[in-house]
Amino acid sequence: MTFLQRNPEAAAALSRRGFLITATSAGVALGFAGEVTAAGPAPAGFEPTIWYSIGRDGTVTVNVIRAELGQHVGTAIARIVADELEADWSKVQVKTVDSDAKWGLMVTGGSWSVWQSYPIYSQAGAAGRTVLIEEGAKLLGVAPGACVARNGAIHAGKASVSYGAIVTRGNLARSFTPEQLAKLPMKPAAERRLIGKAVQARDIPSKTNGQGVYGIDAVVPGMVYARPKLPPTRYDSVVVSIDDSAAKAVPGYQKSLALDDPSGTVPGWVVVLADSFVAANKACDLVKVTWKTGEAAKVSEADLQRRSAELIADPNAGSLVVEDAGVDQAFAAAKSKLEATYTTATALHFQMEPVNALAFEKDGVFEIHTGNQWQSLVLPWLAKALGRPENTIVMKSYLLGGGFGRRLNGDYAIPAALASKAIGKPVKLVFTRADDSRFDSPRAPSVQRVRMAFGEAGRVTAMDHAAAAGWPTLAMAPFFMPKGTNGVAYDPFSVNGADHWYTVGAQRVRAVNNDLANSTFRPGWLRSVGPGWTNWALESFMDEAAHSQGADPLAFRLKLLDGVGRNAGSGPTAVGGAHRQAAVLAAVAKKAGWGAALPKNTGLGLATTFGQERDMPTWVACAARVRVDPQTGVVKVEKLTLVADCGTVVHPDGALAQMQGASLWGMSLALFEGTEFRDGQVKDTNLGGYTPLRMADVPDLDIEFMPSTEPPVGLGEPATTVVGPAIGNAIFNAVGARVRDLPIRPAAVLKAMKA
Hints:
By secondary structure, the chain is of the alpha+beta class. Helices cover 30% and strands 24% of the residues. Strands 12-13-10-20-17-18-19 form a seven-stranded mixed β-sheet, sandwiched between helices.
């Protein structure tokens, strides 16, 4: 299932379109019919179109709708095109495009980018290769069957003609229906020359020589700088008065403006305007605003967790994501039962580049210059806020200094646009680190209850998993929420991972929205989203279940990963199902030395996951080796061993970097990161109180990818979800302390050791 298929109307529209390849004197243009911009003569020799173009000099320009936030997504997607096209990699360049309806859905998240792009761009590359061979054969005076495409040219024996020459001299015109595209011959894996090979990432030079431009670098003549004066609460604050008398002494200060936001994105906001950010920053601290607030100003972390627990206790609350017949009967007839509750604390994004946006109107178009992960989500908010048609607004794309899901929510663009509209000038809104933290869309705190029923000889007969948290998709993209078996809509990103691939008899998975969280703040998507808490509970519980039955945790899991029924897996990307998850688990256990003797107070813990979603499974397993100081409870992670089966590895260096970063983030969330709400706001707003993983804490990493020619899936997030429970299980194996709350603090370890 592709992302487009999640939107039936979009999928239907796409399926009716043929694929078009045309050529003019300017270049070859490739795209879906109805979406192609005619490539007329251009000074540069080519005109970019929907997916890629080839210039008269043979340059291949790949248009990428995904945001570049450090994951080398442009290089990965360009490889897909270039490999099938047989392009000269030295002549391939990547263009990250601005928002436009012709691109369709623009979103970068969920580990979807390569997974969704692979079939589209590989077919596009194959189509281009087919046409270039046909036209190249004419220019060479031979039959197409005598020709091969290789490294940006068509070869026939000792003769050849370059792609640039074909574009300049040829007469290319060919269209493909979706059915014809699907039948185009793709290169066998053995003939790939770019996918899976070591080639330079296209974005590295600009990032290292300073030429790369990030959102915070955007400038235009005559712009006014702004810093927000944030209200006490996210939703229910109203400006009563503004006193800027002290700020007027700051050179360059202009004024403070209370925003009127028809979209409801930034209620109660004041922006402080000045000639420079230094002035805006200083003046903002001096401006005094009086707000009227509501009940959200009283909410604490304990209130949020208590509300989740109350909702989980109500069997009628929430949406039934999985509901097999006989769950209650199996628990009633069970020989034994096990139940445990797990929690996770509020977590923040802390991307390197604080959020920012530059906004202004030019020639009847309102431009928003910023780094963003989901333009298609933000444009309707901007249209409502500005009171103008969506097609008169464009979001200009920039590099992102980190995103981690925070920039899926482009709410920070709204105040910049409103301020610009109000004063009739370009406004560059920049947040301080503390502003960014207070205005963050945090990962909501979560509470989960997991139960398992056992029959004769410890056979698992039923499992019941309920997860309660704030729902980001309800807050920002409710149109993206499917309905459960009981007809109640749910946020898939709050419960993905709980619908696991273990065979556990009758299964129930229930997603519960913490309404207090959603009314207090705007819950956000943070790298791995729901699996970041669901897999913490699931894989910790699997260890507990194994020990309750006197079973080895590895053997217990492998027995349940039998690939029976719905866990058998199917195409296109879940082929092999639970058997592939069992394979990575067995491989990581062997690699890490599972079962070998370890020093005192040292333990090895296992955990496994299928990544983000059942139709896009990335099979990952982790073995964490930890040492626990029994006097202090401090946990030292000595080594993380991970094995992943992500199908075809498109960009090996990028894939390794993704796994490394994700696993370290998972470790950071497990042991170091976490804040709490106090009086409706997060307690920690900078990196003094909020303490992510430091360099001194980084363990040895041993990461391996299973060889595969299956279609590629996602890698940005899965490893994040598997490290935490592996560490928790290792702590238990080291000192017998079972911790069920993230982050794992030394005091909690000491308390569990005494329990």
